[in-house]
Amino acid sequence: MTLETPTANSFSLPFGEQRNGPLYGKDILSVHQFSREDLTHIYTVAHEMRGMVARIGTFDLLKGKILANLFYEPSTRTSASFTAAMERLGGSVIPINNVQYSSVSKGESLPDTVRTLECYADVIVLRHPEVGSCALAAQYASKPVINAGDGIGEHPTQALLDLFTIFEELGTSDGLSVTMLGDLWNGRTVHSLARLLALFNVKLNYVSPDVLKMPDEIVAELNGKGISQQAFTELDPILPETDVLYVTRIQKERFESQEAYDAVKDLYVITPDTMKQAKEKMIVMHPLPRVGEISMEVDADPRAAYFRQMEYGLYTRMALLAMVLGKA
Amino acid sequence: MTLETPTANSFSLPFGEQRNGPLYGKDILSVHQFSREDLTHIYTVAHEMRGMVARIGTFDLLKGKILANLFYEPSTRTSASFTAAMERLGGSVIPINNVQYSSVSKGESLPDTVRTLECYADVIVLRHPEVGSCALAAQYASKPVINAGDGIGEHPTQALLDLFTIFEELGTSDGLSVTMLGDLWNGRTVHSLARLLALFNVKLNYVSPDVLKMPDEIVAELNGKGISQQAFTELDPILPETDVLYVTRIQKERFESQEAYDAVKDLYVITPDTMKQAKEKMIVMHPLPRVGEISMEVDADPRAAYFRQMEYGLYTRMALLAMVLGKA
Amino acid sequence: MTLETPTANSFSLPFGEQRNGPLYGKDILSVHQFSREDLTHIYTVAHEMRGMVARIGTFDLLKGKILANLFYEPSTRTSASFTAAMERLGGSVIPINNVQYSSVSKGESLPDTVRTLECYADVIVLRHPEVGSCALAAQYASKPVINAGDGIGEHPTQALLDLFTIFEELGTSDGLSVTMLGDLWNGRTVHSLARLLALFNVKLNYVSPDVLKMPDEIVAELNGKGISQQAFTELDPILPETDVLYVTRIQKERFESQEAYDAVKDLYVITPDTMKQAKEKMIVMHPLPRVGEISMEVDADPRAAYFRQMEYGLYTRMALLAMVLGKA
């Protein structure tokens, strides 16, 4: 629908029209939709995006393309990341951030809203508090819908950027010992990442209080794929062999009493002391925001990868936008 | 004030600087300001916009121009539509969507706000809950102001896009039988559209419960222009001859009792059964959002034009922005 | 990090890469950071921006650069002004206007937020209700942070634009008699402007009710710099010699009783009658929004400079953005 952008070619981009690319015209709804080959393809493009941003900052691959950034609940980081991804590709954004006050409050249904927005935009990024809302939207939209989090459901681009972080920082994910720490029961982030990692030859370690352990359903699913999994209530035993430490937040509200919370909370705070027991070559990740799970003293440690993780998020989302729009 | 955009010419656009165009530098405040000739001119440009979007998606006709999109009350669709219109023309947008929290809450007057914003922007789109606010803003602004809805007053770009939809879908509006259905008493949309249609040789049919009939004032105004008008309380008698069925929402709150509401509400719901009685070549329109007035089963009917109507809104607003800025 | 924009050169801009410019890579946090030479440099660029906007409206000096416009409290004018400044320079904006609903509400700290946003953007504009927040942000960010107001702390770009207004309107600030009127106790605006003016050879006159007089600390600071200062409770004695009348708002809440407020409020309202006592060549300024401090009848007086002041704000912010990004 859109003219080729000559500027893109003049930068000698490694990109071209890829209308037969594996994600062209597709929705990004769930980590379940990706094969190992898809991931390789996405990360090849994301890595190229990283290089392009380092070299020229912004380029016109998606010039003339418009993203409707539809957020039914606030998420500064995810919204800003998609906006930046589109703008660094030369595209434009329609920001729709306060839908609680909008025509949705007049009773408009999600299918009607997305069918309206696709009259204006080329791709829709949707954040919504209800599980399944993105699949519903995609069913009605003829243009690509990207799930930016639907309640306790999925947040596939978070999982994709998490895995991309591991690839870029450690060069591979095969053979790695990945330790997930904190609230593994409620964490949609760790659930999705675990499922993506199951496509590779990894060892997964779960460290959490018993009430917040990884759900049996996921453990069973990954067992079925032959993934080695171990559960711990403390970090110490497994930290020394850990290649990737993925920290998540434990919310006080998950516990029955203040005492129950106080009993475990300090076990799961990462400090410079903690880091002394870790490998020299390993990384600490966190989906952010953090609220004390990693002390700020750790930030200066080169193994602290959580801010670089945000940056990898930019490249991952640039890759996804370019691919669903047939430009990479 | 802005340099000619060479890119525009390189696309062989049918557009050029039109500083003597009929809308150059003008405000868009009311449907009353348009003659039949103006409409022809607007729709010629809007039709060209449609072709350009189909061929190249986005182009640089308004590159370097800035729109201040000033919304004192939320309206996702209208706001997104103007944003997309400006972005598809290569221009930029200053989104101002939450004015309840802004300097207006410090007591700033509308005249001061628009005189401030026109220091930054080239054109102002204004949505405001008070009747007459856009005229007030236009009185103080030296740059064009476009009314995006002022309370129960006017919403001229909605009426313009409604009429453009009729032209594009049916090729003309002369000779048509246009049936307006639902709440005709409170509907600023149908009032404005009726007034625009009165410039053409149409027959207007009003279908509503008695308490929600078309106001006498408007009926009298259109009678004075020789427009044939008929009122009904049911759709059945007039549906078979209808070329355009314009459906609006009936709000429960308009009725004195639940019984009074229940008595009429089902009479005005459009279903596939309803459509069996309609002409083969006709269109169903709705300003959206709908809340059950048209069942979702009707969406697949090619006569269901309400989503295409949203798209025509984009072209209409692109035309208006280009024209008031002297570029079409 | 970003490719040179050939478009910029093709407009024969007086701008080029100035990676050794005095503000390149710097934060803009406080008026205290500027020397007289810095101001001369900033205003030379701002004046060039004024000329460029007059001639071509928008140009591509910052094409490909991204501004994160991070507002923790609403400020329509300041936010719109920075957005317009970035867009007129060809750059893009990530608008973040409702942080009360965002990850900050999940407890994210400001240092983490800015370190996240600088993964996406090239420069961060920050408005925050707490004094010192911008300095804190700048301490953690590796990219430039521009203070757009931190509580009762500083609002340096307001002071810079105020002084630029004086330069552009009166050609100099040396030798001027500058009268500040209204609430001089709480006005961060007049405090910052007074400090900037102290770099020049000016005479400062303070007109306020006794309870709202200029704080002793600032008077002492400026005395130490040899600035002549006089305090008044009425405008009449000093108006005839005034070159710049800087009006600020007096809020009823600052007074102990309605009577105390009523006793002074009318003394400080500028009307056409007031203007009869003023010089023929002088200017009236106001940071806006006004709520009756200057009657609307004064707006037509050519000496009323407060809307032009908004426009100078655009040029000042364009200059600052270009300079911190090494492009001017």
Structure, described:
3 copies of one chain form a homotrimer. Chain A has 328 residues and is α/β, with parallel strands linked by helices. Chain A folds into 2 domains: 6-155 and 314-324, 3-Layer(aba) Sandwich (Rossmann fold), CATH 3.40.50; 157-310, Aspartate/ornithine carbamoyltransferase (Rossmann fold, 3-Layer(aba) Sandwich), CATH 3.40.50.1370. Chain A is 37% helix and 14% strand. Chain A contains 11 helices and 9 strands. The first copy, chain A, has helices at residues 6-10, 36-56, 76-88, 110-117, 133-140, 156-170, 188-197, 216-223, 258-265, 272-276, 306-324, and strands at residues 66-71, 92-96, 123-128, 145-150, 177-181, 203-207, 228-232, 244-247, 283-285. A 5-stranded parallel beta sheet of chain A has the order 7-6-5-8-9, with helices on one face. In chain A, strand 6 (203-207), helix 8 (216-223) and strand 7 form a beta-alpha-beta unit. Chains in contact: A-B, A-C, B-C. The interface between A and B is medium-sized, with 34 and 32 residues.
